[in-house]
Amino acid sequence: MENNLNPGAPELQPELTPSANPVEQAAPAPFTSRTDLSHLGRHADAIRQELGKVIVGQQALAELLLTAILADGHVLLEGVPGVAKTLTAKLLARTLEVPFSRLQFTPDLMPSDVLGTSVFRPNKAEFEFRAGPIFASIVLIDEINRAPAKTQSALFEVMEERQVTQDGTRYTVPEPFMVLATQNPIEQEGTYRLPEAQLDRFLFKLNVGYPTVEEEIAILQGHHAGFGGTPLEAVRAVLTAADLKGLREQVRRQHVEPKLLEYIARVVGQTRAHKGLYLGASPRASLALLNGAKALAALRGRDFVTPEDIQYLAAPVLRHRIQLTPEREMEGHTADDIVKQILQQIEVPR
Fold first, then answer.
1. Smallest Cα–Cα separation from 61: which of 3, 8, 112, 108?
2. pLDDT tens across 41-84, in order?
3. Regarding the domain with residue range 254-350, which homologous superfamily does it belong to in the CATH classification?
């Protein structure tokens, strides 16, 4: 689970070879970024601070959500009921000064309930398109796996191309555009398996786990002291659409060594050759890993990507894009186990 991972950045200071004469040994040169990331860092810290007003713990989850926002990707949150998946998504949306909408997926939901529909106007003697809730910058979809395939397919175009085609006319969704979807991995009654093509459109799949004992005690203490409920008003917007556009442009300019591009290709390519998998990841996964690593490096104050950034994001990027063979599933293996094996098999560039 992500919140069990160490979100700390790798060591940036080079290790110097000891000199025979201590006087001649130079002091380590401080790391100097070639790009000024202070503006990005201040906004990221402000968002973390706003989320921390309500959410206890989940620092790694917050970092990965911020990474997805900067990488311009969608996120699928998976976890049992009651671990604040929906609350976290709503709070994150409140930190951004952009339009927000929420959809509760149910088995009887139709595509027009998501995308919108054409309404006939008698006074104009013509049809007028009435936009659906998908036309927002942050779209929260609760229990996304409760809608049938017909409704799920309505999301394919808008998640990838950021547009909706209705009656031969294309309508563009607002910029930025991000889908935050939640699902319960345990309950199967009344749910539908998400198509692989739709899963592939999510940048990350994040597992939201239980809090630690200390964090749960803090939750209880806060609730007992009168901080219960969902005080969304406590969270304020700290980032505008224009700010986010500028930060994303800065992330795109992050430096990536050619050997790291090869490393990403080898990691993703190995999923297609692994004996424990019958479905490997597509080139879209390689792009997701690259964009995510750029954003994560920027959040951690670096203008360059390291192998550790790629390794840290390998599971969130790949776990929903690969399928285990029945034999491996019966043995109790998970997608994360396979990703870990692949990372251990491939030589890390230095």
1. 3
2. 899 999 988 888 887 878 889 999 999 999 999 999 998 888 88
3. Magnesium chelatase subunit I, C-Terminal domain (1.10.8.80)
